Every structure is written in C-alpha cells, then in structure tokens.
Structure prediction request, 148 residues.
Amino acid sequence: MSPDPQRPPPAETTYATADAPDGSALHVSVLSAALTVADLATSLAWYRDVLGLTVARTFERAGTMFATSLRAGAVPLLLTQDDGAKGADRVKGVGISLMLTTGQDVDVLAATVTRRGGVLESPPFDGPGGRAFRLRDPDGFRLVIAAG
Prediction:
C-alpha cells in the first residue's frame, strides 16, 4: 500500500527511557489503588476477613465511615463508599485487574481464601509469570494473586 500523498507522514514520537539523561522517565516505588465500592462494610469485611488485609485507618464523616485504608504488607489499598452521584446502580470493577505479587505459597493462599468464604474465579494455575489464581471482590474487581 502506497502512502496517501494528501496526508502528511505521522510525526515521529520519542519516549523517555529509564536512563533518560534529562530525568524525564517516571520512577515509582509504590502504586496504590483506590476502589469505589457499593457497600463499604461488605467490601471491608471481604478484604479483611477473606483476603487477610489489615486495616490501617478508617475515615468518618458525621459518625459514618466513608473510606478505609488497608494494607497487604507494604502495599496500600483504599476503599471508598460510592456516594451515588453517578447513579446508585453504576457498574463497578469492569475493565480493571489488579495483580498482587507475593512471596507466599499461592496454593496455600488459594485454600485459605476458599476456607474463609472466597470464591476463586480460577484455581491455582501455572502461567507465564509463575503460579497464580484469580478471584473477584464483591464489586467485581478482578484480583490476580501471583507468586513472584
């Protein structure tokens, strides 16, 4: 296929690299996730009691909890109560997958999650990156727990 003479060629795009001399490449030490959930109490119980995250802090307004900060080791996760401003039935969790990499035994974790009432989307499997399993939280956010 020959180039269209009426259309100028695309501009060349350059990207920063990790060793960019001007320091323009982004370097991140932690990526935090904040998930808006339909029922904060339900999600908090699931992340705490099924997955085993610890509660770092809760946030209240007028005596009502509207957010909670959880931790899985050094990794933070913030859950916030959906305020309904974008519709009470707004679908959550679609199009996102969070990968949690751990040095723990993935098979033991999967068995623990199941014993605590969690439902696995896939049992532990050997993938290109190692052993992993998948599950979804109460709002449909997909989590992949992987050995690393």
In short: Residues 40-51 form the longest helix (12 residues). Helices lie at 40-51, 106-115. The beta strands are 33-37, 54-61, 64-72, 75-81, 97-102, 120-127, 130-136, 142-147. The mean pLDDT is 89.
